[in-house]
Amino acid sequence: MRLLGKQEIEDIAVGAALLGTGGGGDPYIGKLMALQAIEEFGPIRLLSINEVPEDALVVSSGMMGAPTVMVEKAPSGQEAKKAFKTLEQYIGKEIFATYPIEAGGVNSMLPLALAAQLGLPVIDVDGMGRAFPELQMVTFYLDGIAASPMVIADEKGNVNLLTTIDNVWAERIARAATIQMGGSVMFAIYPMSGRNLKESGIHNILQLEEGIGRTIRLAKEQNENPIREVLNLTKGFELFNGKVVDIHRKTETGFARGTATLEGIGKNKGEKLQLRFQNEHLIATTEQRLLCVTPDLIAVLDEETGLPITTEGLRYGARTVVAGIPCHPKWRTPKGIATCGPGYFGYDVEYTPVELLVKKGALLG
Amino acid sequence: MLRLGIDVGKQRVDCIVMDEKIRMFYVSTRSVIKHPLSGMKEILEEMKQQGIRLSDIKQVIISASSEYEEGLRESEAVHVCAIRIGSSQNSLPPFYEVTDIVRETVQLTCVELSGGHYVDGSPIQDLMMNEWNEKMDRAALPEHATFAVTSAFSPVNPEHEQTVAQWIQKKFGEGRAITLSYEFGSIGLMERENAAILNAALSSVIPSLFQNVKQVLRQYDIHAGIFLSQNDGFLMTYERAISYPIRTLHSRIANSLRGASLLAGREDCIVVIVENKRLYIGMVEEGIPKLRWSKRDIAGMYMHVHIPEVVMIDNIIHGASDEVLERVYQATQRFQPPYEPLPIVFVGNECSEIAGRFHEPWAEVIQPEYFSYASAIGACMAPVGGWIERMYWLSEGTGKTQVIEKAAAEAIKEAILAGAEERSIALQSVKVSPLAYVPNQALRIQVRAFGNFA
């Protein structure tokens, strides 16, 4: 067990933004909630998966809906408390610990704040190893673990307990209810045994997020290149060095969809990169070739500071490094690719691992 | 018709008198000794001796990049009543993360009321008069308290903030300073609340800072409109500015960018500002500084402010070393378009050395006359402007076009309130963006409107 204090929270927030691949919402409010919870209740207990008993009940916590709405509602922690209570009553067992559903943005931070408020430990495991927009896009789904029984709760006191026939239905019903409940809710989801979490989850993810944040912070302090250090840590590749020259955002559907065009600088001078996003960055291509595609991670980093840039924060003139990071091997199975590969998001491209794409590019060049 | 520009910096005060064709009649620089405006009388006396007809001055433009903390520390009793209207109780307190100095100076009374709105603008719950009366009686506020009112989703529907403002006036009299958070636009209850509280605190301080200015001006037969520079470089009347002091804290960069463009006679250019051992590199497009919404740390708290997009290079100890020149070059490249590079204009009192050594094979490099007065000049020549940021919920009968028109009308109203002449008003930068992660009909719209002095 480790104790997380304020510096760790600050570092995790930076790492969460990077693994959020442009989406996941601004971790800022989650970070503040975690910091305040530490002040009030003391440091947060972080457990490695090996410290979790095999038969213990573990539940993921976080938010669903628009982070923009959540920051307006100013959640208090009461919602999550109710959600956990309801789930405990239904299952008839006490919850041992909570864990984040995803690595990225606000949902990396919320379980930390909620754990402190509920007096529970947090387990260093998640279900994505990155951020994705839908509830069934987790490694648990690949292993046939059900999202339900799940609970969503709002700040008014409404609590919904759902039992669904599969995880896609869980996503559909919960998403519709979320809109009725004002656009953002807190959830308690994917209740399972410690054994299942160990077999199916992605281990040491908070440790990785903290490492990313710390690496960027220290590299800046020591005047080293933060991007190079981060890529070493994540086994990632620098795909493109470029300046944003055009951004198109489609507003019709209400989702943050769009395309950014980057003009190469430095070693990429003369080339152009197209970056397509739907909340998260999903596919990066030049005129000649594919550079990286979901479920592998595409992170856009500020060339100077090494800090990640969100899809909302992408602006004309920004000088960036686009990095590709291999996703967890579980995503590279046929079911993994069907769940959150290019086809699911409507791109007519075949998934190829980023390291192979990088190698191919090197052969051609 | 003359304009008097007073540019209050951290270390010095620049004073200029010019006409609208940028002909300079008077320039002076003084170091700040006590109160930034303490030297006013001497300066006006000197102008008179130089033969300037002070009664010809029709506008006085003050740009103060003064420190909010200074102002707060000097004043004795600052008390803000922060009223939060929403459905959730006991979440993060207001002013979380504020700097110690501000926390110590600003007395805070927090009151939570039931109410607020949903993302679609419909009410969560009605405000309750008896809850209000009961909680305010219990709060026992001092005479000098000012108010900051923040309601959930007020950028979509400000009704509850406005109602509470009326209640405050009824209960405590007309004279109390009231800040409503929706006027600061951004989504994010806590950021808006912090901005509103800081604004409410400053609004009880700022009037005393400028108290004497009007009086002194009148003594010297100057009957001019007084304007203050906003963070985005546009002006607003003094009367309006005292209600929005937080909008006037960071105008210096925007003013320097505009001033550089005017002095160099280049509507589109890249500007390098060198002062106080710092470099700022930004851009001017069609005479207007390129702005961006950014999260800035103000008094320790993150807030959304609309300020110029600049690259800052800090702590230039060795002047124009090769390393500094290379970094300046790289920073200018951030703004250069792919073809036909823009001219690069150097301003600021410390720019000469770097400008002299800076060579760019493809772009024109300019160091204009009066380079060290760029900020004061830019402020004097700025249009009067206002902006709004609102959120709208689209429904049948309320389409995108209608809400954009609605937002534009509100921005025009803001510009008129800031002191712009109605017929001269033009719109700039309408930005429309959707919300992520929910298929919905919410649009955020930001609009700026500006015009000439009324």
UniProtKB/TrEMBL annotation, chain A:
Top-rank taxon: Bacteria
Annotated InterPro entries: S-Me-THD-like_C, S-Me-THD_C_sf, S-Me-THD_N, S-Me-THD_N_sf
Ranges for domain S-Me-THD N-terminal: 7-163
Residue ranges of domain S-Me-THD-like C-terminal in the record: 166-354
Protein's UniProt name: DUF917 domain-containing protein
Source organism of the structure: Aneurinibacillus aneurinilyticus ATCC 12856
